[in-house]
Amino acid sequence: MGSVYILTNKAMPGLVKIGFTETQTAQDRADQLYHGYNNSVGTGVPMPFDIVHEEFCDNPKELEALIHQELAELRPNKDREFFKFSDPSEAIQKLKEVHKRLPTHVNCVSSDSLWRKWTSQFLTRFSKLSNRRTPAHVEGEHL
């Protein structure tokens, strides 16, 4: 299970980024793109990304490949995951259309559902908590 996400960036009007993740939430990925890996200093983009949509599915890699293929003519650079859309809702609609054609679509949930929004928030908080380091074990103290 993972997701295909659509991000926008105020510094890049008219473009959306469509990517996938199997191990993180879309928010974690957006933060990573802005801040860098392991909270290193990111210098690649001047503004943080905004999540405009997250589509959950059993095979996000396959869904991402299909949507990239469908939108190839809207890609300003074939080596990057950015696509020309004046309105991100058009990209969302196209992603949903492509997703419905996949045989695994019945097991998937769109980020439009309240359950998915709650779960995404929970996973984001849980991943941040699990990434915190616990204090070193004090000798003689039992857990």
Brief rundown of the structure:
The protein has 143 residues and is α+β, with helices and mostly antiparallel strands.
Please supply descriptive tags for the structure shown above:
single chain; 143 residues; alpha+beta; 5-stranded antiparallel β-sheet; 4 helices; 20% strand
Run of helices and strands: EEHEHEHEH
What is the overall number of helices? 4
User: Can you give the helix content as a percent range?
Assistant: 25-40%
Gap from first CA to last CA: 34 Å
How many strand units? 5
Shape category: globular
Rg, Cα atoms, Å: 17 Å
| Number of domain units | 1
What is the average per-residue confidence, as pLDDT, rounded to a whole number?
81
- Spans of at least 5 consecutive residues with low confidence: none
Structural class of the helix and strand makeup?
A: alpha+beta
The biggest beta sheet is recorded as:
5 strands, antiparallel
- Can you list the strand order of the major beta sheet? 4-2-1-3-5
Question: Beta-sheet strand percentage?
Answer: 15-25%
Explain the overall architecture.
There is one protein chain. With about 140 residues, the protein is an alpha+beta fold. The protein has one domain. About 35% of the residues lie in helices and about 20% in strands. It has 4 helices and 5 strands. It has a 5-stranded antiparallel sheet, with helices on both faces. Strand 1 and strand 2 form a beta hairpin. Helix 2 packs across helix 3. The model has no long low-confidence stretch (mean pLDDT about 80).
